[in-house]
Write a structure and sequence with these properties.
Elements lengths: L2 H21 L11 E4 L4 E9 L1 H4 L10 H12 L2 E9 L5 H9 L8 E5 L2 H5 L4 H19 L3 E5 L14 H26 L3 E2 L22 H23 L2
Parallel strand pairs: 2-3, 2-4, 4-5, 5-6
Antiparallel strand pairs: 1-3
């Protein structure tokens, strides 16, 4: 959305944003383990999943139905791996705040990380350039401190499909999310060409509605987590694992 149009709509957008925050229920993060071993493959993959409420599993009751649990199950189906995994996530984190969480945590050695951030960058109106810089810093940190060989950055979901957002707030937030995704794709392409240590899956086929979202109409439900886990697992199995096994 252009700056001029945002300025024209800003009183309405602010009012809608405040009303939406007030009426949308605050859901808890999914219960269950945040580290462990999954699968019985001959080869070991050390995996970190980090990010915001979508990484933490807000919208479902247990980690089994959340992104982490569903991603582990699908990776185990696709690859002969023993997955040593850890989840570091909290509701409300922007990409920069996820970076600070990782900096404040004693990280175990890693092979692969999956970073799930971005929606709160839209909510907090973080500039795309700042979000990209935070992603670059996350990649550099995980490589230098934890020895990660590859970092997958999950794109933002289609925010314009979130049922809880009224128009024109839904349209504006969706346009901002698409802008953030364009910046993410451009940065990934540039860095991947030089270092081949980052990538992003394609979530273009993801469709969100009342039946796939949580009760608040803002966070994923089990069906949405399953669709994103499928896309991430396919991306890791087809595009990332062949590089890591060399």
């Amino acid at each position: 959305m252009s700056l001029a149009l945002k300025l024209v709509l800003s009183p309405l957008l602010v009012a809608q944003a405040l009303h939406t925050r007030a009426k949308v229920p605050r859901l808890p993060e999914a219960a269950g383990p945040r580290a462990g071993v999954h699968g019985h493959g001959a080869q070991r993959l050390r995996l970190l999943i980090a990010g915001d409420s979508s990484a933490a599993g807000v919208g479902v009751a247990t980690q089994r139905d959340a992104l982490a649990g569903q991603l582990l199950a699908r990776l185990a189906q696709r690859l002969p791996l023993q997955l040593h995994w850890q989840l570091l996530a909290a509701s409300g984190l922007t990409t920069a705040q996820t970076l600070e969480l990782l900096r404040a945590t004693r990280l175990d050695a890693l092979d692969l990380a999956v970073i799930v951030t971005g929606v709160n960058d839209v909510v907090e109106q973080v500039a795309t350039a700042r979000a990209v810089r935070a992603r670059a810093a996350i990649a550099d940190l995980l490589r230098s401190v934890a020895g990660a060989r590859h970092i997958v950055f999950c794109p933002l979901p289609p925010v314009q499909q979130f049922p809880s957002l009224p128009q024109p707030l839904r349209w504006m937030a969706g346009a901002d999310a698409q802008r953030h995704n364009r910046a993410l794709r451009e940065w990934v392409a540039q860095r991947a060409h030089a270092q081949a240590d980052v990538s992003a899956p394609d979530l273009g086929a993801l469709q969100l509605g009342r039946d796939s979202m949580a009760a608040d109409g803002f966070h994923p439900g089990a069906a949405a987590y399953r669709a994103v886990a499928d896309a991430l697992a396919a991306h890791i199995a087809d595009a990332v694992w062949p590089r890591l096994r060399r």
